[in-house]
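hey
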């Protein structure tokens, strides 16, 4: 009888111990779950400076276990985007984090704005203008005027530097577009084309009075004056004197290479000597020039005796050589 009672008491104690052990395990499991639960409090508005957004950028976290979960790309500088709580939850789950291991609180959506700065176009224009004045090698006076642009350029936050392209200063046109690399913190962000109107001025020779076609120029016909020579090719004094005009010109006209020519040594209708050269014999006869000819030109000449038209080379102002 006493033995049975002892057995019953022993079983009762064992059962009580089992209950305590199970209760302890339940408490332990509950405590572990509470310890591993990460609270994520989303912010209402966030300013970022980087291209990639992580969970730590847009939320306050109770621990650092989830801070490096990738959320997405930042908007362009000066732009904004919204990230909803549901989207954040999806990104966390995609990172293999269980639903029960985190708790989302705070804003229902995050307003994400990329920090930016506006490019000072006036500063850039002055930099490029001074660069052009430095690299254009000329004794001429230059006027450089920017071609207006309404473009607003928004850049990321950082140190802004410029890389300027090269130009051919020997073949300048009235309008020049120079590529400029815009760098932020040493990295090229974008390239813009800066437009400028370039006007060139120099002391050049002009006609002092109206001059007719075929007029042979003398020092009395010209004088120096500062004129705009953009897109022109003015001739110097030594190239003008004793040349003749191809077309009539008005007083004040800049004398350029395309307006002048060397006068012919022989004119149409002139009586010339036709010199026919053979291997051992040179024969001369008279002829009539049928067209104008400069030194070395081939012209048609009529033999006065035979009336035959032959081709000869102008040797001087009265001789045509036939070989």
């Amino acid at each position: 009888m006493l033995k049975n009672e002892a057995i019953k008491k022993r079983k009762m104690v064992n059962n009580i111990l089992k209950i305590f052990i199970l209760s302890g395990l339940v408490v332990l499991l509950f405590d572990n779950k509470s310890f591993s639960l990460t609270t994520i409090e989303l912010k209402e508005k966030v300013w970022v400076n980087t291209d990639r957004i992580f969970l730590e950028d847009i939320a306050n976290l109770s621990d650092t276990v989830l801070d490096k979960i990738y959320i997405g790309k930042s908007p362009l500088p000066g732009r904004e985007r919204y990230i909803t709580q549901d989207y954040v939850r999806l990104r966390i789950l995609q990172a293999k984090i269980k639903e029960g291991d985190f708790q989302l609180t705070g804003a229902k959506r995050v307003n994400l704005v990329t920090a930016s700065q506006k490019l000072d176009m006036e500063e850039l224009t002055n930099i490029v203008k001074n660069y052009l004045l430095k690299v254009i090698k000329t004794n001429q006076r230059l006027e450089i005027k920017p071609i207006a642009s309404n473009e607003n350029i928004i850049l990321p936050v950082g140190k802004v530097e410029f890389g300027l392209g090269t130009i051919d200063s020997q073949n300048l046109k009235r309008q020049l577009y120079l590529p400029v690399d815009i760098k932020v913190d040493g990295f090229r962000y974008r390239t813009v084309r800066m437009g400028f109107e370039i006007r060139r001025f120099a002391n050049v020779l002009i006609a002092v009075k109206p001059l007719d076609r075929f007029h042979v120029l003398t020092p009395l016909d010209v004088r120096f004056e500062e004129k705009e020579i953009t897109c022109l090719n003015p001739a110097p004094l030594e190239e003008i004197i004793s040349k003749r005009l191809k077309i009539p010109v008005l007083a004040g006209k800049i004398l350029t290479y395309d307006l002048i020519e060397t006068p012919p040594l022989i004119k149409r209708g002139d009586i010339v000597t036709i010199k026919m050269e053979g291997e051992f014999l040179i024969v001369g006869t008279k002829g009539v020039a049928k067209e104008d000819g400069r030194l070395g030109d081939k012209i048609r000449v009529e033999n006065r005796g035979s009336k035959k038209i032959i081709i000869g080379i102008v040797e001087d102002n009265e001789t045509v050589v036939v070989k």
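The longest helix spans residues 2-36. The domain at 271-322 is CATH 2.30.30.760 (SH3 type barrels.).
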